[in-house]
Design a protein that fits this description.
Elements: H1 2-22, H2 24-33
């Protein structure tokens, strides 16, 4: 259970870093809407 959570969290952080790094403008827009 814990291992699965860490994997999901790690993937989320990786995706977040990828999107914010590659498309900062789009990332800011999405975060602003949320």
């Amino acid at each position: 259970m814990a291992g699965k959570g860490v994997t999901i969290l790690g993937g989320f952080v990786a995706d977040l870093a990828f999107w914010t790094g590659r498309l900062p403008a789009m990332g800011e827009t999405v975060m602003g809407r949320e």
